Amino acid sequence: MSKDKPHYDKVGDRATSPDARPASAPVPSSSGSGAVEPRASDRDVTAFVERMRSIAPSAVDGRGRLVFAMDATMSRQPTWDMALHLQGEMFAAVKSVGGLDVQLVYFRGLDECRASKWVSDPAALARLMSTVGCRGGNTQIGKVLSHARAETTGRRVNALVYVGDAMEENVDALCAKAGELAILGVPVFLFQEGSDPAVSRAFKEIARVTKGAWCRFDAGAAAELKALLTAVAVYAAGGHKALVALSQRPDGRAARLLLTEMKPGSR
Known about the structure:
Layout: E1 8-10, H1 42-51, E2 64-71, H2 77-93, E3 100-108, E4 112-119, H3 122-130, H4 141-154, E5 159-164, H5 171-183, E6 188-193, H6 197-210, E7 213-217, H7 222-247, H8 253-262
Parallel strand pairs: 2-3, 2-5, 5-6, 6-7
Antiparallel strand pairs: 1-4, 3-4
Helix pairs in contact: 1-5, 2-3, 2-7, 4-5, 5-6, 7-8
């Protein structure tokens, strides 16, 4: 397939790329598919995660893997363009701690949610991102969480990054999907643009359940978002130890913020 025509697999369909999960892996239900989403209280999700904590996550296998997911509905265009310019920093930051493969996932419109192939260099990711234009629609965060779960069933995903400004889905259902990622040891790092309190509550809870982190930024905070994405990339490539090392540097404020957010009871 030509580099000029990047291919995206539709999330929720049976993937056809070389990185597709094994055929035997279960396919989680996706929000927006018409199926009734399961409801679970915060107490139910927490109890479920505690019961299943003995299940070991997938073993780390070579290079770190990061799912980079973005809301591509119409309100996201300025932030999408900003992320396109910043994503190269994620790769540059991990050279000293190991390699990093990144998969781009986006949703837009009424029922479009797609995932790219896995890429290992910033130019390839930039090409993928440049082919996507934002369109109006509703959020499909549930599909993003289910996709990350399916990917790590085949081979370990070290972290999921999500950037968005809205949440139009059932919070309990999203937390149930987040609990499945927690069992597999996949933290979710959510970056919220804006200050909608309902979005903040949902994003904070997903971060808490998965032992990830939630941070807020605005469209003019390019430097802040760059530092935060860099810190997550270092974590995905080198784990908690690498993030601690980054936090001890003079320019490690973002890493220190993420470490604080990832502590139990910090939210």
